[in-house]
C-alpha cells in the first residue's frame, strides 16, 4: 500500500512569515505547534512518574541494587519535574505559554507550587535542601574522621528521591494538566483544520504552496508511520491530536565496530 503524502505545516508557517502573508494561519499553526509540544512534555513526565511508581512499589522484579535504584528513581523524578515545569511554568525561549495556575482547581495549586519549588531549589539550581514530606530530598555534610589517618576528610550524602507521597501528588497533578493540554491540542488542531478548509474552498494559492512541502525529515516520517499503526478512520480534526514518537539510531561509521549508537 502506497503511503499517503503528509505535508509540513510548520514549514508552511515559516514560509508565510517570510512572505508576511496569512498572519491568521501563521498564528493558528504556531499555537497548535506550541501546545502540542507542551503536551508531549507532559506525556513524558507522566510516563516517568508511573515508571518511578512501578520501580518502587516492591512488586517490580527488576534486579537493581541500591545505587542503581537511587540513580534511576532520582533521574525519573528529576526528568518529570523538568518536563512538567517546561510545559507549564518555565519561561519559554521558542514556545508560547499556554498554561496558567488559574486553570487548576485550588486543591492542586499547592502541588504545582511544590513542584516549581523543587525545580528551583533542587533541580535547576543547587539549594539548601528544604524539607519535602518531613525531610529534604538531599542532605550532605563534609566530615572529619580523626581515626582515619589516610583519609581523614570525607563527604557524605543521602538522596531520598523515592518519596511515595510526593510522587503520588505529582502524578495526580500531571494527569490533570495533561488532560487540559489534550483539550487545548484538540482545539488548536481544529482551528488549523478550519483555516485550511476555508483556504481550500477559496482556492487560495497558499494551498498549492503547501502541496509543495511534503514532510521530508526521515525521523518525522518514521514517527508518522508509527502514528498510523492501528489508527481509526475519523472525519474530525479533534482525533488528529495523537502524538507518535519513535527512537531513531544513527548508523555507526564504517570504522566504528561498536555498532549503532
Low-confidence stretches: 234-261
Spatial extent as radius of gyration: 24 Å
- Sheet-strand content, in percent, reads 5-15%
* Biggest β-sheet: strands ordered side by side in the sheet: 1-2
* Structural class label: mainly alpha
Q: What is the tally of beta strands?
A: 2
Kindly summarize this structure in a few lines.
The protein is mainly alpha-helical and 261 residues long.
List the helices and strands and how they pair.
Elements: H1 9-19, H2 23-55, H3 66-88, H4 106-123, E1 138-144, E2 153-159, H5 164-201, H6 206-211, H7 218-227
Antiparallel strand pairs: 1-2
Helix pairs in contact: 1-2, 2-3, 2-5, 3-4, 4-5
Report on the architecture of this protein:
It is a single chain. With 261 residues, this protein is mostly helical. 53% of the residues lie in helices and 5% in strands. Helix 2 packs antiparallel against helix 3, helix 2 packs antiparallel against helix 5 and helix 3 packs across helix 4. The C terminus is likely disordered. A hairpin with an 8-residue loop joins strand 1 and strand 2. It is elongated, with a radius of gyration of 24 Å. Strands 1-2 form a two-stranded antiparallel ribbon.
Can you give keywords for this protein?
single chain; 261 residues; mainly alpha; two-stranded antiparallel sheet; 53% helix; 5% strand; elongated
Amino acid at each position: 500500500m502506497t503511503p499517503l503524502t503528509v505535508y509540513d505545516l510548520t514549514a508552511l508557517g515559516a514560509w508565510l512569515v517570510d512572505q508576511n502573508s496569512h498572519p491568521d494561519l501563521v498564528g493558528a499553526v504556531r499555537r497548535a505547534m506550541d501546545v502540542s509540544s507542551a503536551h508531549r512534555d507532559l506525556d513524558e513526565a507522566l510516563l516517568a512518574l508511573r515508571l518511578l511508581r512501578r520501580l518502587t512499589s516492591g512488586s517490580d522484579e527488576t534486579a537493581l541494587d541500591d545505587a542503581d535504584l537511587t540513580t534511576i528513581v532520582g533521574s525519573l523524578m528529576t526528568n518529570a519535574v523538568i518536563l512538567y515545569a517546561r510545559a507549564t511554568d518555565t519561561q519559554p525561549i521558542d514556545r508560547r505559554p499556554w498554561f496558567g495556575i488559574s486553570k487548576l482547581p485550588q486543591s492542586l495549586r499547592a502541588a504545582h507550587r511544590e513542584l516549581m519549588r523543587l525545580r528551583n531549589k533542587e533541580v535547576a539550581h543547587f539549594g539548601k535542601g528544604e524539607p519535602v514530606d518531613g525531610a529534604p530530598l538531599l542532605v550532605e555534610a563534609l566530615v572529619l574522621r580523626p581515626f582515619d589517618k589516610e583519609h581523614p576528610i570525607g563527604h557524605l550524602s543521602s538522596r531520598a528521591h523515592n518519596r511515595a507521597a510526593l510522587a503520588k501528588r505529582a502524578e495526580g497533578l500531571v494527569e490533570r494538566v495533561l488532560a487540559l493540554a489534550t483539550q487545548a491540542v484538540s482545539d488548536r488542531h481544529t482551528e488549523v483544520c478550519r483555516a485550511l478548509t476555508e483556504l481550500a474552498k477559496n482556492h487560495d494559492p497558499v494551498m498549492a504552496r503547501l502541496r509543495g512541502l511534503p514532510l521530508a525529515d526521515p525521523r518525522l516520517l518514521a514517527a508518522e508511520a508509527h502514528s498510523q499503526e492501528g489508527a481509526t478512520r475519523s472525519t474530525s480534526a479533534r482525533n488528529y491530536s495523537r502524538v507518535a514518537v519513535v527512537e531513531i539510531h544513527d548508523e555507526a561509521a564504517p570504522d566504528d565496530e561498536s555498532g549503532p549508537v
